[in-house]
């Protein structure tokens, strides 16, 4: 009996044994019966290549055996096994032999392969070794009407959860509503499509055209709705009466509601061709992946690693699967939940505060002062699902005077240092003015806290010769604004560009020129003032803290800013927030566009207890009427402190 662990070893040993034995006996090899080695090796090579033309069979022909193997391998693409003869049992002079084949399939990138042994009977007929054919030669117990297939097994996608472990984005019941064209066709299908489209509130003409273009056996989806969607609840009976209408239940990864933090959480869908190509074999057509937002950025963590199963499949004449059984399985690795800091009640309250803002884009961001955790980041309906709340790039207007105040403090100013508040101020030929309704009684030399409380533009711009642009840049960074940090989410921390232009420098003092911020940015500025230390944002829990700025915020400096911002609430533009317990505030407007007079972005920032809030409205008259109502609505609805 010849034994060897690999085909190459076996071949060498068996051939040398034959040659040595023949020569030692002193007779010609052509006078001796052939050894079964060549036939066994030819079978192994044929199974590896899919071509059994070089093998003589008993019970079938090489062509039929090859056709069977071709069909068995068809669904495996280019994947083929490595096959070797691991053992050959044959007694000298016997016309019977048994070969043991070792097959190894590299079915995945893991170190584990699908391996198995099959025993093959050979018989010597007319000086030729014949292989007794059975489909089981190809794979263990494979039947004549079965083929091989590899099915990948993705684990259930991990959830996005809040810090308490409660699910935010998870699989939820949905229903795909559409037309089943096996039940209706022609003009009837067109009429049914239009009727159904009206019930599910999609474009009737477009859906009818889609149904008309589909094949006669197609299910044409019109819309996918949550199982709890009021529209489905309300129109469900009417939908069921539409001829050909079909409602298909399914599961889909979704947030608590259609709008809930949608720009942040993102979406999940079928992998695109570009994603499949970039994955280098990890993804295939039909795989579910993160498409946008956190679902996209943390896709690998959330989806885990797929397992797979090699199956023996029996199909009907039409190609449908009649039966399947598992020959080999490789277990999948579960994804890991992503914990984020959004508070579900706070987020819902923030979205409710903006729900009626359908004319202009709006946003509201809430940050926990002590930790930097983003508790809510909402956009109104007119923002069209944009990333405005965390990544918007807008002129912050007079909310930036908090930064300008810090730059002044670093030049020795206190909250009571007098600044000249004049009706207008000209810098290098450009005239700056206060807002139209600025109170005349607060013109003249006024304390810096009054200048902030009533938002005197000229008072802050008057320091443009003493406070450099770099002073403003550094002050902004100390308050968490303007640095380019590697954020673990889509966000923007603001920008205060250096400039040698005197007019642009002057405009920077009042948050215009090229100064930009997101609502997140301004919430962090307020949080830093309240904490007396630069506050960095945290949205994804458990990650290393972002670095502190090169020039940290001094608690004494922050104390001056808190005094100013308290004055905004006690007697300035933030008094509207005082009944709600707000301690710190600042309004802001920033001109933009080409109208005369120009439109203005409006802001309101506020602080109470352990939360800092920034509200933004793309177009409004002022922060009190255009942004403060969002903060008021939020604070009335939510119990955060």
Automatic annotation (TrEMBL):
Superkingdom classification of source: Bacteria
Domain Penicillin-binding protein dimerisation stretches: 155-321
Gene3D superfamilies: DD-peptidase/beta-lactamase superfamily, Penicillin-binding protein 2a (Domain 2)
InterPro entries the record matches: Beta-lactam/transpept, Beta-lactam/transpept-like, MecA_N, PBP_dimer, PBP_dimer_sf, PCN-bd_Tpept
Subcellular location per the Swiss-Prot or TrEMBL entry: Membrane
Main location: membrane
Pfam families given in the database record: MecA_N (PF05223), PBP_dimer (PF03717), Transpeptidase (PF00905)
Protein name: Cell division protein FtsI
Protein species of origin: Terrabacter aerolatus
């Amino acid at each position: 009996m010849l034994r060897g662990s690999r085909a190459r070893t076996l071949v060498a040993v068996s051939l040398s044994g034959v040659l040595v034995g023949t020569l030692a006996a002193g007779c010609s090899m052509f006078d001796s019966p052939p050894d079964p080695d060549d036939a066994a090796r030819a079978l192994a090579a044929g199974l590896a290549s899919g071509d059994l033309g070089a093998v003589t069979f008993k019970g079938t022909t090489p062509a039929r055996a090859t056709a069977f193997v071709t069909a068995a391998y068809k669904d495996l693409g280019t994947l083929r096994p490595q096959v070797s003869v691991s053992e050959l049992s044959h007694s000298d002079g016997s016309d019977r032999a048994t070969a043991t084949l070792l097959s190894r399939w590299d079915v995945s990138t893991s170190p584990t392969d699908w391996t198995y042994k099959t025993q093959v009977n050979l018989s010597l007929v007319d000086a030729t070794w014949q292989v007794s054919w059975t489909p089981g030669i190809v794979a263990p117990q494979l039947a004549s009407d079965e083929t091989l297939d590899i099915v990948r097994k993705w684990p259930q996608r991990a959830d996005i959860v809040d810090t308490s472990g409660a699910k935010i984005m998870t699989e939820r019941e949905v229903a795909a509503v559409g037309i089943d064209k096996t039940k209706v066709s022609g003009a009837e299908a067109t009429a049914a499509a239009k009727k159904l489209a009206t019930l599910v509130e999609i474009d009737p003409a477009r859906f009818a055209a889609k149904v008309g273009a589909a094949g006669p056996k197609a299910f044409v989806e019109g819309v996918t709705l949550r199982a709890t969607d009021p529209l489905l609840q309300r129109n469900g009976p009417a939908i069921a009466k539409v001829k050909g209408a079909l409602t298909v239940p399914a599961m889909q990864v979704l947030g608590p509601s259609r709008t809930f933090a949608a720009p942040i959480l993102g979406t999940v869908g079928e992998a695109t061709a570009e994603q499949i190509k970039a994955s280098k074999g990890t993804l295939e057509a039909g795989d579910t992946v993160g498409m946008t937002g956190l679902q996209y950025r943390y896709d690998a963590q959330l989806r885990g690693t797929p397992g797979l199963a090699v199956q023996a499949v029996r199909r009907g004449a039409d190609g449908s699967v009649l039966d399947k059984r598992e020959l080999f399985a490789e277990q999948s690795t579960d994804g890991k939940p992503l914990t984020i800091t959004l508070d579900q009640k706070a987020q819902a309250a923030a979205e409710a505060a903006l729900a009626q803002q359908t004319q202009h884009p709006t946003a509201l961001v809430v940050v926990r002062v002590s930790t930097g955790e983003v508790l809510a980041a909402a956009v109104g309906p007119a923002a069209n699902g944009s990333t405005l709340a965390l990544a918007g790039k807008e002129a912050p207007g007079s909310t930036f005077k908090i930064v300008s105040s810090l730059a002044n403090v670093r030049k020795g100013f206190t909250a009571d240092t007098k600044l000249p508040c004049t009706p207008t101020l000209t810098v290098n030929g450009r005239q700056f003015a206060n807002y139209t309704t600025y109170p005349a009684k607060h013109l003249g030399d006024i304390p810096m806290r009054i200048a902030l409380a009533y938002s005197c533009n000229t008072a802050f711009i008057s320091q443009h010769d003493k406070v450099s642009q770099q002073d403003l840049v550094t002050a902004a960074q100390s308050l968490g604004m303007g640095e380019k940090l590697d954020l673990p989410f889509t966000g923007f921390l603001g920008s205060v560009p250096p400039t040698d232009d005197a007019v642009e420098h002057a405009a920077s003092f009042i948050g215009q020129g090229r100064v930009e911020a997101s609502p997140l940015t301004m919430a962090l500025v307020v949080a830093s003032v309240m904490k007396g230390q630069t506050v960095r944002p945290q949205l994804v829990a458990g990650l290393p803290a972002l670095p502190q700025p090169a020039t940290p915020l001094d608690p004494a400096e922050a104390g001056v800013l808190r005094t100013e911002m308290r004055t905004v609430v006690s007697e300035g533009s933030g008094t509207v927030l005082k009944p709600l317990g707000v301690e710190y505030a600042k309004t802001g407007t920033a001109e933009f566009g080409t109208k005369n007079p120009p439109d203005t972005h409006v802001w309101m920032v506020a602080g109470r207890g352990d939360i800092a809030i920034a509200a933004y409205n793309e177009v409004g008259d002022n922060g009190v009427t255009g942004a403060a109502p969002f903060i008021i609505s939020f604070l009335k609805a939510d119990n955060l402190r």
